[in-house]
Structures are given as structure tokens and as C-alpha cells.
Write a structure and sequence with these properties.
The longest helix is centred in the N-terminal third of the chain and has 16 residues. 30% of the residues lie in helices and 26% in strands. Strands 1-2-3-4 form a four-stranded antiparallel beta sheet, with helices on one face. The protein has a domain of 56 residues. The radius of gyration is 16 Å and the shape is elongated. With 87 residues, it is α+β, with helices and mostly antiparallel strands. About 9% of the residues have low confidence. It is built from two helices and four strands, in the order H-H-E-E-E-E.
Length: 87
């Protein structure tokens, strides 16, 4: 019973500490800036032909890339998987 309580408390700590990104496909570019402000991260914007890539650099070294069309709409989001990395 005590271990279940400990695991429940640990899960609650992780939920409180984590800060989810909320940019949504189909939302405008303001959702990217809102994520960057809320998570207190750095934002780098690069042009990639017909779209812009907004990179949110998190303190954990994770980089979330949000792809924005010329009309200012988020059409894709990517981030590294937690899988095994190759050397």
C-alpha cells in the first residue's frame, strides 16, 4: 500500500512540474509565441522555402519545431523521440 501511495505522489509531481506545449495544428503563429512565453524558452525562426520553422529550445535540450505557412498557420509540429540514439 505504501509503495502505491509513493508512486501516486511521484506521478503527481511529474504532472505539476511538466509544462506541455499547446501549439495546435491549424492554429495561427500566436500559439507558437504563447508556448515560448509560457515555457520561458528561446525561440529561433528560420525560413525554409515556402514556410518558416519556429524552433523552441527548452532547458532540457529538447527542440520543438513548429512549421508555419506563409498565411501564419501551424501545419506541422516535430520533436525528438525518447527512443535510443545511435552513436
Amino acid at each position: 500500500m505504501e509503495s502505491k501511495l509513493w508512486l501516486t505522489n511521484l506521478a503527481l509531481v511529474f504532472l505539476v512540474v511538466s509544462v506541455p506545449a499547446t501549439a495546435t495544428l491549424g492554429e495561427d503563429v500566436a500559439s507558437v509565441r504563447a508556448d515560448q512565453t509560457r515555457m520561458q524558452t528561446t525561440l529561433q525562426i528560420t525560413s525554409a522555402g515556402n514556410f518558416a520553422v519556429h524552433e523552441i529550445h527548452m532547458p532540457s535540450a529538447t527542440v520543438v519545431k513548429e512549421y508555419v505557412s506563409p498565411a501564419g498557420m501551424v501545419f506541422a509540429v516535430s520533436w525528438p523521440s525518447p527512443g535510443r540514439r545511435r552513436a
